[in-house]
């Protein structure tokens, strides 16, 4: 700080991401969760832009080819990098939440990550897993279909997708059976209630 230059939030959040990743790889999911949250707090002000896939836009890394003199290009690059990091942190925190079986929170973090990058494969996959655990089969199947389309070699996603499809078919069959039983119920009132004639 002696130079008077302000430290970018990304520069503070990135070491926390690495620390959280280490906790995660050690199986210390609560510590990972808390550390991802701390990193996300540093990036709180960054919101998705109106442009689709802003966080995943390709191009040169922030600040590449720039002498560090500041200006609008540096600021835009910093913001893009912050959004990219925020997306990664949300998806990583969702992974920790999956391990902790916090399904609704997984869905929340993945949905937020997908606001930044609608084609974020890991966020889509993790949200699909969480929907499946909550037995929200239609949404699980939708997310898992996308995940499998993006990574056809993911055997776990394929297996989860097959289960979600099977459960959707089972739900449809049960709904048809219920409707059939109601229609064939001999105690079911089939006549319309009579109307009183008002004179």
Automatic annotation (TrEMBL):
Lineage: Eukaryota, Sar, Alveolata, Dinophyceae, Peridiniales
Keyword Nucleus: no
Domain of life: Eukaryota
Location of region: Disordered: 1-24, 47-78
Listed Low complexity bias regions: 51-64
Record's protein name: Peptidylprolyl isomerase
Matches recorded under Gene3D superfamilies: Tetratricopeptide repeat domain
Keyword set, alphabetical order: Coiled coil
Organism: Zooxanthella nutricula
InterPro entries (alphabetical): FKBP4/5/8-like, TPR-like_helical_dom_sf, TPR_rpt
Coiled-coil region list: 154-185
Coiled coil in keyword set: yes
SUPFAM superfamilies: TPR-like
């Amino acid at each position: 700080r002696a130079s008077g230059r302000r430290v970018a939030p990304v520069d503070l959040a990135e070491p926390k991401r690495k620390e959280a990743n280490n906790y995660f790889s050690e199986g210390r999911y609560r510590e990972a969760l808390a550390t991802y949250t701390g990193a996300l707090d540093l990036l709180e002000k960054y919101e998705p832009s109106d442009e689709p896939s802003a966080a995943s836009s390709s191009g040169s890394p922030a600040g590449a080819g720039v002498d560090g003199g500041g200006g609008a290009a540096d600021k835009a690059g910093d913001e893009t990098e912050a959004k990219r990091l925020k997306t990664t942190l949300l998806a990583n925190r969702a992974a920790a939440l999956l391990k902790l079986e916090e399904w609704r929170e997984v869905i929340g973090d993945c949905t937020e990550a997908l606001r930044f990058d609608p084609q974020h494969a890991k966020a889509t996959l993790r949200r699909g897993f969480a929907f499946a655990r909550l037995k929200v089969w239609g949404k699980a199947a939708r997310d898992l279909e996308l995940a499998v389309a993006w990574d056809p070699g993911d055997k776990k996603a394929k297996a989860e997708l097959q289960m979600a499809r099977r459960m959707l078919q089972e739900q449809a069959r049960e709904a048809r059976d219920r409707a059939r039983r109601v229609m064939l119920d001999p105690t079911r009132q089939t006549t319309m209630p009579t109307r009183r004639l008002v004179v």
